[in-house]
Design the sequence.
């Protein structure tokens, strides 16, 4: 498909696109009379009839229609300048003189400005953004300096000493309870563990229990507990030697 | 016993006002109009003019390193011309440095005919002026001033107060009349007519 062969059916023209362009270029058809939107529409419709996009045709059409658009724009928005070639020689000379004079004046004005700039080149002044813009006023509620002072005083006070007590748990030595239980067992054959540790702290009770296990390990005591969580009864183990001595003494 | 000498000279209120104006002018980075000064000093216009007159006497060339001037429609301090050399060692002047002939002509068109559009300038100069106009905007010598009427009208430009300040103009009315410029228009006209007659013959 060639863009040039696009068939057009416009109000002002009927035929292929390239003929339209020729007529416009020969000035046999005024570009102002050509409906360019209709040409674009016709092309797009033709394009839509095909499966594949013909890039070459699109490119060609774009160039041609742009040229036409430029011609039309020039005619619709004519430069206010008169085309000198259309004027009689005297008129053209007058028009040219008018333009040259206008330009010459501006050139002179530019020269005057250049001279002025050179003469004023020793002017130095402050340049910067305007400080004149009013700043928005920020209003605060009435403040009480005493309250602020009190708050600051609180912050300035020495902070309380942090207790590190929990970081150094002191376990009473197991040996303490070992000695205590042995002494007890020298006086009595048996004792009630719960009764002995009653009133002690959990840590002390745990330490006491470890001492009890230690005694059991050394086979110094027998331990009885009738039921889980029941009272623990501790009895001295009679050593043979001891038993023999006591038997003899009896 | 109080040893201080008796003060015989009491500063007049105008001196007091002059000091206020000094302060306002020294903090301003652009010329302040008499009206601006009156509002900021909270005083009336007549007294502002009187106070300004005393300041003009204090801050003038040859007497002070700071000079008060009436420029760009307002009042502003600048450095004394004698001190330009020292100032030049401290500051560059980018706004007017290296202005081309094209830039000067464009500036002239906009100063005389502005607000005007780029096509207006191009019509007179006969060449496209987009780059030149953009450069002048960047230098702060011209600024946008609305658009031509109608949808999509071209942007109009005018010269800025900075332009007046750099060129030392109180206002644009200080520019020479365009009719007084241009040299010998009749001579050009006569030469062109001579050419036309030859061709027409």
Sequence:
């Amino acid at each position: 498909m060639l863009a040039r062969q696009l068939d057009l059916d416009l109000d002002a023209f009927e035929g292929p696109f390239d003929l339209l362009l020729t007529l416009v270029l020969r000035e046999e058809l005024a570009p102002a009379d050509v409906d360019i939107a209709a040409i674009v529409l016709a092309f797009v419709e033709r394009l839509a009839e095909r499966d594949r996009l013909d890039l070459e045709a699109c490119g060609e059409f774009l160039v041609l229609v742009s040229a036409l658009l430029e011609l039309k724009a020039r005619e619709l928005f004519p430069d206010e300048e008169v085309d000198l070639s259309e004027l009689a020689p005297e008129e053209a000379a007058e028009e040219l003189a008018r333009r040259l004079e206008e330009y010459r004046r501006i050139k002179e004005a530019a020269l005057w400005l250049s001279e002025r700039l050179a003469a004023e080149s020793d002017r130095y002044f402050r340049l910067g953004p305007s400080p004149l813009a009013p700043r928005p006023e920020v209003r605060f509620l009435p403040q009480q300096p005493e309250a602020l002072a009190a708050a600051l005083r609180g912050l300035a006070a020495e902070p309380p000493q942090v207790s590190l007590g929990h970081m150094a748990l002191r376990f009473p030595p197991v040996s303490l309870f070992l000695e205590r239980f042995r002494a007890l067992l020298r006086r009595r054959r048996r004792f009630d563990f719960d009764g002995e540790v009653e009133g002690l702290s959990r840590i002390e009770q745990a330490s006491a229990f470890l001492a009890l296990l230690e005694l059991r390990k050394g086979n110094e005591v027998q331990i009885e507990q009738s039921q889980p969580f029941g009272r623990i009864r501790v009895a001295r183990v009679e050593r043979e030697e001891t038993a023999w001595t006591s038997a003899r003494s009896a | 016993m109080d040893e201080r000498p008796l003060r015989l000279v009491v500063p007049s209120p105008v001196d007091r006002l002059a000091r206020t104006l000094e302060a306002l002018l020294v903090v301003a980075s652009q010329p302040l109009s008499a009206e601006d000064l009156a509002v900021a000093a909270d005083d009336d216009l007549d007294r502002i003019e009187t106070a300004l007159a005393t300041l003009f006497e204090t801050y003038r060339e040859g007497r002070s390193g700071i000079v008060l001037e009436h420029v760009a429609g307002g009042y502003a301090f600048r450095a004394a011309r004698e001190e330009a050399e020292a100032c030049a060692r401290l500051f560059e002047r980018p706004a007017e440095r290296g202005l081309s002939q094209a830039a000067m002509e464009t500036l002239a068109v906009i100063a005389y005919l502005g607000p005007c559009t780029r096509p207006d300038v191009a019509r007179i100069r006969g060449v496209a002026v987009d780059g030149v106009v953009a450069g002048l905007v960047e230098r702060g010598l011209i600024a946008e001033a609305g658009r031509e009427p109608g949808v999509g009208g071209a942007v109009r430009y005018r010269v800025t107060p900075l332009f007046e300040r750099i060129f030392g103009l109180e206002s644009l009315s200080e520019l020479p009349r365009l009719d007084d410029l241009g040299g010998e228009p009749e001579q050009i006209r006569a030469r062109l007519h001579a050419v036309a007659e030859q061709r027409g013959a």
